[in-house]
Amino acid sequence: MTVELPPGLALQKVDERIMTLNVGPQHPGSGHMRIIVQIDGDYIVACDPDPGYVHRGEEKMAEYRNYITNIPHLERPVIHDSCNVLYPYVLGAEELLGIEVPERAKYVRVIASELNRCIYIMYWLAIYGIFLGHSTMFMWPAGDRELLIDLMEKMTGARVTHAHFVPGGVRNDLPPNFEDVCLRQVNYFEKRIKEYAAVFYDNPILISRTRDTGILSRQDAIRYGTTGSVLRASGVDYDLRVKEPYDVYDELDVHTNVMKEGDSYARSRIPWLDMMESCNIIRQALQKMPKSGSVRVKLKPNPKTKGLESVYKRVESGRGSLGCYIVSDAKTEPYRVKLSVPSFRNLIALPNLLRGEKLGNMPSVYWSLNYWPVEADR
Amino acid sequence: MSVIAPNFKLSEFIKSLLDNVFWIIFIVVLIGLPAIMMVLFVIEMPVIDGELLTPFLALTWIADPSRILPIVKAFMATDIFRVMAFPGFGFAALIAAGTIFIERKMLAKLQLRVGPFYCGKLEGILQLMGDGLKLISKEIIIPAKADKPIFWAAPVLFVATAAAFVAFIPVAPGWVVADVEMGLLGVFAVIGFFPIITILSAWSANSKFPFIGGIRALFQMVSFEIPLILSLLGVVMLTGSLNLSEIAASQSSFPWIVFLPVGAIVFFITMLAELERIPFDLPEAESEIVAGWLTELSGMMYGLVQLGTYLKLYAFAGLFVVLFLGGWNGPMIVPPFPAELLEKGIEMGPIVAGPFPGLPLFTQEMLNGTLWFVLKTVGVIFFILLPRGVFPRIRVDMLLNLGWTKLIGLAFINIFIALGLLYAGVLGPGGLQ
Fold first, then answer.
1. Do B192 and B250 belong to one domain?
2. Per-residue pLDDT reduced to its tens digit, A82-97
3. Least Cα separation, residue B396 to chain A (angstroms)
4. What residues make up the domain containing B77?
C-alpha cells in the first residue's frame, strides 16, 4: 500500500539503509519547527527544514493598525529582543512622519537596544547549552539574564515585551539614579559572562564536538545571504552598527568581532564576544549621554503620512541585520509592512551544513545558526 | 500556612484524621475482633514453657527482650533477610534513593538554583516519594506496533539484573548475598546482560528514536566492556583471587589504588560509560533522539528503569570501592558495645532493665565495615554525579575512539604495571611481600 504524500513532503526511498527522522515540532531538539532528516547509519544524507508552525500573520495585521498601535504587536516575533525587532519600524515611521528625535532619546535607544541584545543572546546561549547536554550552561545564563531584565524593568516598566520605542523617541525618560545602577549591573554581568568561558567555551569536550563541524565557507556565507554572527564567524567583517550607523552609533566606538573558521564553535563564540562588546557600548553611551533633556517628541493623536512613499530601514539585531520595509498611502495605517528577518536567512544555510554531518552534530549546527523559529515565521 | 495548599487548615486536617481513626476502630471492633475470637475458638493454641499461648501472652513476649532478641537474630541469619534487606535490595534501594536526592540538590547548588524544595518539610526530602506516586498513577501506554511481551518484560528484567549485580557486592566481613569463588566473573556476566536487555527493549518498541538509542547503548556498552574487564585484571593478578570478599580483605593495609592508579582511572571512566551518565549519556541524548531507548516507556515502566539505573550506579560504585579503595577496611571508629549492658542491664532509678543476652545484634567489625563502605561508596557516587554539572555530551565517534584506542591501551599499561610489581617481588598474592 502506498500513501500519497503532498509534494513537499514526499521523500523518495533511495536505499533500504536510509531512515527518515522527523525532528520536531514535538521534539526537544527542534524548537517550533520541523527538520526532516534522512540518515544513513549515523550520517545525515539529506535535511529539509520545514518552518511555518508558528506563522501568525504579523505583517498582515500591521495593515489594520495605525502607526502607534502597531508598536506593541510588531515586537512579538522575538519578545526577548523586542527593542531591536521594533527599531527598524520606528526608524522608518519617523522618516515617513517627518519627526526629528531628541539627542537624549537616541542614547536611551542605544542602551535599551544593547541590553536587549544581551538578553536575547543569554537566552540563545541557554538553549545552546542544553542542546549540547550541558545543563549548567542552561541554568547560568537563564539566571544571569535576570540582571538585565531587572534593568529593563526599571527602564520601561515591563520585563520582556517593553514596547519602549515610539516614533519620536522613547516612551519614558530614564528613572532617577539609573546610570549608576546600570553601570554596576553591567560590570557585574561582564564579570559573570567571563566565567562562562571556563565552564563552557574552553571545555575540551565542547571544543572537540563543535570544532570543524558544519563549516560554512566565506563564499557560501555571502552567497546564501546569511547575516549577523553566522556571517561574522565565516570571516566577513560586516556589522550594520559600523557599516550603516543609525541613531548615534557613529559617535560610539564599536568593535566588530570576526572569526575565520566558520564552524559551529566560531558561530557559538561570536555571540559571546558580542555580549562583551555590548557592555562596552553601554558604558560609552552612559558616559556620552546628555544628562537632561527631552526624550520624546509630542505627536498628534493619530498621525498621517504625506503621500504614497516607501522607506526601508535596517538595524543590527541579536541575530543579524533586521530590515523593515514600510509603504504608506497617506492614511493613518501603513499600506504594507514587510519584515526582512535574519533568522530565515540564516536557516537557508542549514541543509548544506548538515549534509554529511553526523546525527550527533545536528543540534549544535542547527542552533549555532542563531535561528529563532518564531521570528522566521512571523 | 503552606505555600502549595493555601486553603489548608490544621483544625480541618485533625478533624478528618479523627474521622478516619473512628472508622478504623469501628470496623476493627465490629469485624476484626469477632473474627479473631472465632478463629481462636477453632484452633488449639500451643503450650510453650508450660504456659498456654494466648494472644495476650504473645503480645507481652514481643516486649520481652530475652524472648524477642533470639528470634530477631535468627531471622537476620537467614538468606531472606540478606536478599531483601541488608546487603541486598533494601539497602541498595535506600542508597539509590539517597543518591537521587543528593544528585538533584547538589546539581541545583552548582547551577545557582534551589532544587526540590516544597515536597516534605525539610528541603524537599519527600520529592522522590512524590515522583514515585506520580509514576505509579500514570497510564502505561504501549505503542500499537510494539512486540508486547518483550516490551513489558524489559523494565522488569532490567531491575532484576541490577539487583543481581547488587548481590555480589560485599558490604562488611561476611555480609554479602552471594559469596561465590568466581565473584568477579559473575559480575562480568551480569554486566553483559544489560546491553541485551537494552536492545530488546529498544527493538521491541518498534519506533525510530528508541531504535537509534538502543543501537547507541549497544555500541557503548559492548565497546566499553573490554577496557572494563582489562582494567580489573591488575587487581586480580595482585590478589590472586576472583572472590570479591577476599579482594576486599587483601587490602587491609593499603588500597590497590595506591599501586594501580591507571587501572582505577580507566575503570572509573568505563563505569561512567556503562552507567550512561554525562558525558557518556548518548543513548538518552534528548536533543538528538528524544529520550533514546526510554522514549516509549511510560508510567511505572520508566520508573522501574530509573530504579534499575540507580541500583546499577550503587553497585558500580560499590565495586569500585571493593576493588580499588579497600572495601570495608578502615580505622576502627565505632565504639565497642558496653559490656555491663550485657551482664547487668540498665539501671534507671528503681527500675532495672535487662540483662540482654541477645545483644549485640551486630558485631563491632560489621558496623565499622559498613560505615567505611558506605562512606567510601557515597564519595565515589559523588564523583560519578559531578561531571553532569561540568561536561557536555560527547559524540558517538569520539566515544568509540576513546573506548577502543585510548582506554584499552591504558588498561594494558595497567596490566604491565601489575606484572612488574608482581615480578619485582614488591607485591604478591595476598599483599606486601
1. yes
2. 889 999 999 998 888 8
3. 7
4. 53-83
Interface list for chain A against chain B, based on CB atoms closer than 8 Å: 19, 21, 27-29, 42, 129-140, 143, 199-200, 203, 205-206, 208-209, 358-363
The Cα B206–Cα B210 span in angstroms is: 8
Half-sphere exposure of residue A144: CA atoms within 13 angstroms, side-chain side? 29
Q: Are residues B77 and B164 in the same domain?
A: no
**Residue A45 to residue A362: CA distance in whole angstroms:** 12
C-alpha closest to that of A173 among A185, A198, A156: A156
pLDDT at residue B5 in the model: 59
Q: What pLDDT does B432 receive?
A: 54
Coil, helix or strand at residue B207: coil
Residue B3: other Cβ atoms inside 10 A: 8
| Closest C-alpha to A360, from A50, A43, A136 | A43
Residues B395, A137: C-beta atoms closer than 8 Å: no
Q: How far apart are CA A46 and CA A42, in angstroms?
A: 12
Q: Is residue B322 part of a domain?
A: yes
- A11-29 burial, b for 16+ CB within 10 Å, e for fewer? eeeeeeeeeebbbbbebbb
List, for residues B355-373, the tens digit of each pLDDT value: 666 677 778 888 888 999 9
- Alpha-carbon distance A192 to nearest alpha carbon in chain B (angstroms): 13
Residues B223 and B264 in one domain: yes
Question: In this predicted model, which residue has the larger pLDDT, A115 or B4?
Answer: A115
Q: Could you tell me how many residues make up chain A?
A: 378
Superfamily of domain A58-302: Cytochrome-c3 Hydrogenase, chain B (1.10.645.10)
pLDDT per position as a tens digit, A11-38: 555 566 778 888 878 887 777 888 888 8
Chain B residues whose beta carbon lies within 8 Å of the beta carbon of residue A206: 392
**Chain B residue with the nearest C-alpha to that of A41:** B212
For residue B5, tell me if it sits in a domain: no
pLDDT digits (tens, 9 = 90+) for B96-123: 989 999 899 888 988 888 888 887 777 7
Note whether B395 contacts A361, CB cutoff 8 Å: yes
CA separation (Å) from B385 to A27, A210, B271, B281? Answer: 26, 24, 12, 12
pLDDT at B341 > cutoff 80: no
Q: How confident is the model at residue B354 (pLDDT cuts 50, 70, 90)?
A: low
Average pLDDT taken over every residue of chain A = 87
Q: How high is the mean pLDDT of chain B?
A: 84
Q: Quote the crossing angle between the two packed helices B193-204 and B183-191, to the nearest 10°.
A: 20
Residues B271 and B279: their CA atoms lie apart, in Å, by 12
CB contact under 8 A, A358 and B395: yes
List, as own/partner pairs, every contact residues B59-65 make where C-beta atoms lie below 8 angstroms and the sequence separation is at least 24, other chains included: B65/B354, B65/B356, B65/B358, B65/B359
Residues from chain B that touch A29, judged by Cβ atoms under 8 A, are: 286-288, 290
Q: How confident is the model at residue B53, as a pLDDT?
A: 74
pLDDT-derived band at A292, boundaries 50, 70, 90: confident
Instruction: Give domain status of residue B16, yes or no.
Output: no
In a domain, B293, yes or no: yes
